[in-house]
């Protein structure tokens, strides 16, 4: 099994090359994971920098002492994949973010589509956004990622259209699409934007706006997936076809 990942703000060490992992991450390592001397760990800042290390000891219930190796920076994946995710009901938004993080999506944009039952407003909206970001962070650790996906502020339809217009390839998942996503012509680099609508579907007005911005409707298969699973399934198709899963 690969070494567990913990998030740090910096990779500072003492004169002997040891780093002290403390705070919530240290407590999780010591009291939950129960790591002991000789076991391996990976520390990351979640933005591409990582360092492998070996546990040399613990202090109390929340301090893990790690002999740290060199800090390296992993290259940015290309093409970059952004999923615009319409707001699902309940906790299915966190489910979508979790599984999209696991497969390798680079960015998630919450979208307040016209047919979304859920709307993020005021404190409730900020709380929901915080949950999505926390989910991306934890799923990034669990899936051993060094770069965690960015979770943007909630976007309006016009903001999504602007994002689509700047993409090298953009698609809207929709049953009206005549072209399968599995055969779409994809760029070798640049930015790919995938738009996933709500349970009630993408409205005709939204489809027209996205089409004007350069995103045609595409279908995955014969079945219709829920909004919380469609993005993950489509991302897997794209990541395999672009060679990022090779």
Automatic annotation (TrEMBL):
<dbReference type="InterPro" id="IPR006700">
    <property type="entry name" value="RsmE"/>
</dbReference>
<dbReference type="GO" id="GO:0008168">
    <property type="term" value="F:methyltransferase activity"/>
</dbReference>
<keyword id="KW-0808">Transferase</keyword>
<comment type="similarity">
    <text>Belongs to the RNA methyltransferase RsmE family.</text>
</comment>
<comment type="function">
    <text>Specifically methylates the N3 position of the uracil ring of uridine 1498 (m3U1498) in 16S rRNA. Acts on the fully assembled 30S ribosomal subunit.</text>
</comment>
<keyword id="KW-0963">Cytoplasm</keyword>
<dbReference type="GO" id="GO:0032259">
    <property type="term" value="P:methylation"/>
</dbReference>
<dbReference type="InterPro" id="IPR046887">
    <property type="entry name" value="RsmE_PUA-like"/>
</dbReference>
<protein>
    <recommendedName>
        <fullName>Ribosomal RNA small subunit methyltransferase E</fullName>
        <ecNumber>2.1.1.193</ecNumber>
    </recommendedName>
</protein>
<dbReference type="InterPro" id="IPR015947">
    <property type="entry name" value="PUA-like_sf"/>
</dbReference>
<dbReference type="Pfam" id="PF04452">
    <property type="entry name" value="Methyltrans_RNA"/>
</dbReference>
<keyword id="KW-0698">rRNA processing</keyword>
<keyword id="KW-0949">S-adenosyl-L-methionine</keyword>
<dbReference type="InterPro" id="IPR029026">
    <property type="entry name" value="tRNA_m1G_MTases_N"/>
</dbReference>
<keyword id="KW-0489">Methyltransferase</keyword>
<dbReference type="Pfam" id="PF20260">
    <property type="entry name" value="PUA_4"/>
</dbReference>
<dbReference type="InterPro" id="IPR046886">
    <property type="entry name" value="RsmE_MTase_dom"/>
</dbReference>
<feature type="domain" description="Ribosomal RNA small subunit methyltransferase E PUA-like">
    <location>
        <begin position="21"/>
        <end position="68"/>
    </location>
</feature>
<dbReference type="InterPro" id="IPR029028">
    <property type="entry name" value="Alpha/beta_knot_MTases"/>
</dbReference>
<feature type="domain" description="Ribosomal RNA small subunit methyltransferase E methyltransferase">
    <location>
        <begin position="77"/>
        <end position="238"/>
    </location>
</feature>
């Amino acid at each position: 099994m690969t070494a567990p990942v913990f998030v740090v703000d910096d990779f500072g060490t003492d004169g002997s090359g040891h780093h002290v992992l403390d705070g919530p991450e240290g407590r999780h390592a010591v009291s939950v994971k129960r790591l002991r001397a000789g076991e391996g760990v990976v520390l990351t800042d979640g933005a591409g920098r990582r360092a492998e290390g070996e546990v040399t000891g613990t202090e109390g219930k929340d301090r893990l002492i790690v002999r740290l190796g060199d800090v390296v920076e992993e290259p940015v994946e290309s093409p970059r994949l952004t999923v615009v995710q319409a707001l699902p009901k309940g906790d299915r938004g966190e489910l979508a973010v979790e599984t999209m993080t696991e497969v390798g999506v680079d960015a998630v944009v919450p979208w307040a589509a016209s047919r979304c039952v859920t709307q993020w407003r005021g404190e409730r909206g900020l709380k929901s956004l915080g949950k999505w970001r926390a989910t991306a962070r934890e799923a990034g650790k669990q899936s051993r990622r060094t770069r965690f996906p960015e979770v943007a502020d909630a976007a309006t339809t016009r903001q999504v259209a602007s994002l689509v217009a700047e993409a090298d390839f953009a698609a809207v998942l929709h049953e009206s699409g005549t072209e399968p996503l599995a055969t779409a012509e994809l760029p070798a680099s640049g930015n790919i934007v995938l738009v996933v609508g709500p349970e009630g579907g993408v409205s005709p007005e939204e489809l027209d706006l996205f089409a004007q911005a350069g995103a045609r409707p595409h279908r995955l298969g014969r079945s219709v997936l829920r909004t919380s699973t469609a993005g993950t399934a489509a991302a897997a198709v794209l990541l395999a076809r672009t060679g990022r899963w090779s």
